[in-house]
Amino acid sequence: MPYDPRRVNRSSLRHPFHDYGTPEAYAFELTTYERRHLFGHVDQGRICVSRLGAIVWAEWFRTAEIRPNVVLDAFIVMPDHVHGIVLLRAPADEREDLSAGSRVPSDAGTRRLPSSLRDDGMPPSPSRTLGAIVRGLKGTVTRQINELRNLPDEPVWAPDYWDRILHTETALAQKRRYIRQNPEAWWRDPTQLSGPEGKRAIDRTGWG
Question: What is the CATH number for 65?
Answer without folding.
Answer: 3.30.70.1290
